[in-house]
Each structure stands twice: as structure tokens, then as C-alpha cells.
Write a structure and sequence with these properties.
- The structure is a single chain.
- By secondary structure, this protein is of the alpha+beta class.
- The protein folds into three domains: 2-109, Nucleoside Triphosphate Pyrophosphohydrolase (Alpha-Beta Complex); 112-192, no CATH class; 215-295, Winged helix-like DNA-binding domain superfamily/Winged helix DNA-binding domain (Arc Repressor Mutant, subunit A, Orthogonal Bundle), CATH 1.10.10.10.
- Helix content is 32%, strand content 21%.
- A hairpin with a 7-residue loop joins strand 8 and strand 9.
- Helix 2 (124-136) packs antiparallel against helix 3 (142-156), helix 3 (142-156) runs antiparallel to helix 4 and helix 4 (168-177) packs antiparallel against helix 5 (199-213).
């Protein structure tokens, strides 16, 4: 039956960090913001090459680092009811490399405001805590209520549990289950900006992947200019993690990892004493090109204050 035919599309979560804000590229999909997406063209030798070609054609933005995220194939994902299989990718870019009418950039915390804890617990957390507790007590039985309460505490760091930045997707899925975020033509919610279909879920998947990834691979350098101060590097990691990091611990661990080297120049625009400029060590770049396994121990520290 033709109704059972599923179409395949490629979706790109293109992330950048600009002025200490993690940003995601979006395009217009009707009246809503969406992640860049397009059909898979069979003339390309691989999914990645097809996505690279499509994104560059549609957004005038060449892709650098790219990795596959997840395949989304659930029914009822699309507001028009069409069955679509979406193969999602995460790409790391620099926002200032492009200026186009087709695409725009927004902070990803506009869509998932509860994920930004750099200035402490965001105000929306109190509202979500109350709403989630109401949902938990609507479970119908004491056991189910207790189960929901445990899930809420674990995902959101309530009731003495520690906030875990890596659980971005679990938090989003819990909010969706509780009816607190909308997808696929559902009624607009008040908990962050809406996105087309389930693209906000795909964004949450990318955030969770990247937050975990920067702990064991130095992919953050894909987002950095050729030279940078250590504070700029720290602020970029903080923007992605949604947390403030301990300055001295961060610098000590960066030095231990031997990931950067001094350029011999300094930045006089820091507002105080000129700060030394660093660059990513070229040997690391070469090793990365040879094999991911060479970087198994090269990571950026996520060490809280």
C-alpha cells in the first residue's frame, strides 16, 4: 500500500559557539523554524557526502566535522501525517564563515532553556519542577507515582540528586511524556521556542552527544578560531556544557593533556593584562586525521566549581 511507503531525509544539526553562546543553524519550514534537512539523493556515494552537498547548496555553508547521530523513524513524527525516516547528523562549524538569507542562527538554549546552568539554576526550573510533580501524581497508583518521582529527580537533579549535563535527551523526553513540550503540530508550549515536527528532540539528541563527546575527544577545537586565549577556550566548553568550570582545574588539565601550544602572541583586548594566545597542537590534528583511536585519551575537562 502506498500509505506504508516511508520517505528518507537527512537532517543536520549545525552547531557553533559565538560570543559565548552555543548556536544552532535553522531554516524556515512554513511558519516554523526547522533544522536544515533534505532528501537523500542516490547519486551520492554515501549519506555523509549527500548531506554535505545538500547543506552547502541550501545554506551556502561548507561542512567540516560531521558525525551521524541517530535515525528517527517513529510514526506520527510529521505534522502532515507522512511517514518519514530521518537520519540525523551533528556538524561543528564557525558561524562567522557564512551569511545567507536561507539560514539563521539562534542560541540552542532558546529551544531548551532548562539546559543552561552557567548562571546557576535557570528560573524555568521552578516551573518545571511543579509541573512535573503534578504529572507524577496523576500516574494513578502509588508505585507509578514513585517511579515518576525517581525519574524526575534523576533527570533534573531534584531532591538532592546531582545535575548531569549529559542527560539532555532524557530530560526532553520526560518533558514530552509529561506533555510539557510540543511536537508535530501539537499545541504550542511555553517551555522554550517551538521547532518544526520533532526537530527540538533531534537538537536535544545532538546536545547530549556533544556534551559527552567533549569529555573524551577534543572536538571543541572545530569551533575555535585558529588562535585563542585559554579563557576563550574555557568559555566555549562552558557554553556547550551549560556549566561554569573551575578556572585553575581547567587550565591544569588542559596543560596535562598537551592539546595546545603558545603562538608567541598575545591578545590585548581582554580588558587587563594581555593574555597569551594558544593554538591547537598540529600533531593532534595529524593524529586525528589518521585515526580516532589516537585521541582516546585526549579530552577537555568538565570540572565544576
Amino acid at each position: 500500500m502506498t500509505d506504508d511507503i516511508a520517505h528518507t531525509e537527512l537532517i543536520a544539526v549545525l552547531a557553533a559557539v559565538t560570543r559565548e553562546q552555543p548556536r544552532v543553524m535553522t531554516v524556515r519550514q512554513g511558519q516554523e523554524q526547522a533544522l536544515p534537512s533534505g532528501p537523500f539523493a542516490t547519486e551520492h556515494r554515501s549519506l555523509q557526502s549527500g548531506l554535505r552537498a545538500w547543506v552547502q547548496a541550501e545554506t551556502a555553508h561548507p561542512l567540516g566535522y560531521l558525525e551521524q547521530l541517530y535515525t528517527f523513524a517513529d510514526r506520527d513524527r510529521h505534522p502532515e501525517g507522512e511517514r518519514i525516516i530521518s537520519i540525523s547528523y551533528l556538524g561543528l562549524v564557525r558561524e562567522d564563515e557564512t551569511a545567507t538569507d536561507q539560514a539563521s542562527w539562534r542560541s540552542w538554549y532558546d529551544y531548551l532553556p532548562w539546559e543552561d546552568h552557567r548562571q546557576g539554576e535557570p528560573a524555568i526550573m521552578e516551573h518545571l519542577n511543579i509541573a512535573l510533580l503534578v504529572w507524577a501524581h496523576q500516574a494513578g497508583t502509588v508505585d507509578l507515582t514513585a517511579q515518576r518521582m525517581r525519574r524526575i529527580a534523576f533527570a533534573f537533579g531534584f531532591d538532592g540528586e546531582r545535575w548531569n549535563e549529559d542527560l539532555a535527551l532524557q530530560r526532553y523526553e520526560l518533558l514530552y511524556e509529561a506533555g510539557l513540550v510540543a511536537e508535530a503540530g501539537m499545541k504550542e508550549d511555553e517551555n522554550g521556542r517551538h521547532m518544526f515536527a520533532d526537530h527540538r528532540r533531534i537538537l536535544a539528541t545532538a546536545i547530549a552527544r556533544l556534551r559527552a563527546k567533549i569529555k573524551y575527544r577534543p572536538v571543541v577545537f572545530e569551533l575555535m578560531p585558529e588562535s585563542f586565549t585559554l579563557l576563550q577556550l574555557q568559555r566555549t566548553v562552558e557554553a556547550l556544557a551549560g556549566l561554569r568550570l573551575h578556572k585553575q582545574n581547567f587550565r591544569r588539565l588542559i596543560e596535562q593533556q598537551d592539546l595546545v601550544e603558545e603562538t608567541g602572541e598575545s591578545d590585548s583586548e581582554t580588558g587587563g593584562r594581555p593574555a597569551k594566545l594558544f593554538r591547537f597542537r598540529y600533531s593532534i590534528v595529524e593524529e586525528r586525521a589518521l585515526s580516532e583511536r589516537h585521541l582516546a585519551g585526549a579530552k577537555l575537562p568538565i570540572s565544576r566549581d
